[in-house]
Specification:
The chain has 558 residues and is mainly alpha-helical. It contains 31 helices and no strands. Helix 20 packs antiparallel against helix 21.
Length: 558
């Protein structure tokens, strides 16, 4: 056992303390003892062993600072033990004692036959101390002495990047990638460096060139046919970082079959697959991976939140609500989850549930635009239009003070619709015009404003133009077709109105009482009372309406 190996082992039980020190003193040398060249050399080696043994004892006693002092002395007195020097210098760097680390590594580098590993460590320390020229010289020597060791390349690459020498950095990576005797790990560690260079200097490290070179390196890795799961995971990550998801996914899936059934081992792989599936617009597979993570780790709120968002985007509203409720239960301080849950509940037409969710959020968090806006929408669904307008006004005030970009065409459309439903038509027109001022081609606002005018028999020509524009943009929209037919009816043009309303009936996803009511009115204007009666009866079968009932009664024989 070398001295450095024992340093890495840490402490043993107190009963073996004397034996540990004895073993360290007797068996610690990492290489044959040097030929005696005098008592001084022998004394230095003996002193190195003694310090090493003392360091072992300090470490077993839980005294890391004292142990490091003795290990440092051992490495200083025996610089030819490279394994010890590298381990002790690593610990010194962690302890922010770069000066001492530099001293022992310089001594090791001065030994005859010092390896490239020592020079790579020397380059790293010199760079840390901002001795750039010395660091570069050490790294160049490290590469020359050990061309199959990664440390020198990595150090020199970082120095080139710091000095904005992108061309030299790219040439260095290509040189490393073509070394004949390197292993799979060496090649895999090059890929993040290629990716970093491409990101920072795309003009020099052109994406297509970097991609080609990196893929050549990965093809060499494939030739090793490694069975090591950690290396295959690195290979999958490398393909993933290069955008080669079709190569990464099979590797990740294969690893899931082989890795231990332990969440902390498997879940990171599932997370990577989730990201790939989301990028490739395959939400169902992404949800499958997230559901597997949830089974392994049922207390992870972020997983349930993502599942909720994906389910909502896929119009799976009930599962979305369930997932988001679980996310909130596990992480009650995730403010956004409350607003997402309220949005889902509104989509499910459960305005009362949405109001309860928002009330809970209001008690936990300060008032903000989203909270006020969603509360306004929920109150509107409850037909509490004055309450809805109060919250919309609060949302508008907050947005003007904090983020005016939130006051977009959709916001003003919602406010305009609430005013119309509250019977405040002048205010409704004002806000709907604001919506159209922001987005002149916003068809929903065109149709809403045009239909409102048509319904009240005002500004009929303006209404017709707006609705015709909406129909031209969306010629298969049943609501817009009905609106156009209705404004033509109001303009006393029932013959022109009929085709549009009949098209609206054909395009409806489900029968609509209002559209059939309009159809009955048009048929009556065309003096076809039987057809008018049939349309009104259909309207009443869908929704009771006193006005339609009166029209039917008026058709009854006297």
């Amino acid at each position: 056992m070398t001295m450095a190996c024992a340093v890495a082992l840490g402490c043993r039980s107190s009963s073996s303390r004397v034996l540990a020190a004895s073993e360290a003193a007797t068996f610690a040398p990492a290489r044959p003892d040097p030929k005696p060249d005098g008592d001084a050399a022998l004394h230095r080696l003996a002193a190195a062993h003694a310090h090493y043994g003392a360091g072992v004892i300090h470490e077993m006693d839980g005294e890391p600072a004292s142990a490091l002092k003795d290990y440092y002395e051992a490495a200083r007195l025996d610089p030819g033990d490279e394994e010890l020097v590298l381990e002790v210098s690593r610990r010194l760097l962690i302890a922010n004692q770069a000066g001492k680390a530099l001293q022992i590594v310089r001594q090791a580098a001065a030994q005859p036959g010092a390896s490239g590993l020592v020079y790579a460590r020397l380059g790293a320390i010199e760079a840390r101390l901002n001795h750039k020229e010395k660091a570069m010289a050490a790294d160049v020597t490290a590469i020359r002495k050990s061309p199959a060791a990664f440390g020198g390349y990595q150090n020199l690459f970082l120095l080139y990047i710091q000095d904005r020498k992108a061309r030299q950095a790219l040439d260095l990576l290509d040189k490393a990638a073509h070394q004949p005797e390197v292993d799979a790990l060496f090649l895999l560690r090059l890929i993040p460096l290629y990716a970093s260079l491409r990101l920072q200097y795309p003009d020099v490290a052109r994406p297509e060139v970097v991609h080609t070179n990196a893929m050549e390196a990965l093809q060499r890795v494939e030739q090793f046919k490694t069975e090591d799961p950690s290396l295959r995971l690195m290979l999958a990550d490398a393909y993933n970082s290069l955008g080669e998801s079709e190569k990464a996914v099979p590797l990740y899936l294969g690893l899931l079959k082989e890795l231990p059934d332990v969440p902390m081992v498997r879940d990171p792989v599932r997370a990577r697959l989730t990201a790939i599936y989301l990028r490739s617009k395959n939400p169902q597979r992404a949800m499958g991976q997230l559901q597997a993570i949830a089974r392994d780790d049922p207390t992870n709120p972020q997983v349930y939140y993502l599942l909720g968002k994906l389910a909502y985007a896929g119009n799976q509203l009930r599962p979305a609500a369930d997932y988001l409720r679980k996310a909130i239960l596990l992480e009650p301080n995730d403010e956004q989850a409350y607003y997402d849950l309220a949005s889902v509940q509104l989509s499910l037409n459960k305005a009362r549930d949405a109001l309860q969710t928002l009330q809970t959020a209001r008690k936990k968090f300060s008032s903000n635009f989203v909270l006020e806006f969603l509360t306004g929408a929920a109150e509107g669904r409850q037909r509490a239009f004055n309450e809805a307008l109060r919250h919309y006004t609060a949302a508008e005030i907050i947005a003007k003070a904090t983020d005016p970009s939130r006051l977009d065409q959709f916001f003003y459309f919602q406010v305009g619709a609430a005013y119309e439903q509250a019977g405040q038509y002048h205010e409704a027109e004002k806000y709907l015009r604001k919506s159209l001022a922001i987005a002149p081609d916003f068809t929903e606002a065109m149709n809403y404003l045009g239909y409102m005018w048509a319904e009240h028999g005002v500004k009929l020509e303006q209404a017709r133009k707006l609705i015709e524009k909406a129909v031209k943009a969306e010629p298969k929209n049943a609501a817009y077709l009905d609106s156009l037919g209705w404004v033509l009816y109001q303009l006393k043009k029932p013959q022109q109105a009929l085709p549009y309303i009949l098209k609206a009936v054909q395009r409806l996803d489900q029968p609509d009482a209002e559209v059939y009511g309009h159809l009955g009115d048009v048929y009556l204007a065309l003096k076809e009372p039987a057809k008018a009666r049939a349309a009104w009866l259909k309207s009443l079968s869908l929704q009771p309406n006193e006005e339609v009932r009166k029209k039917l009664d008026a058709l009854a024989p006297k």
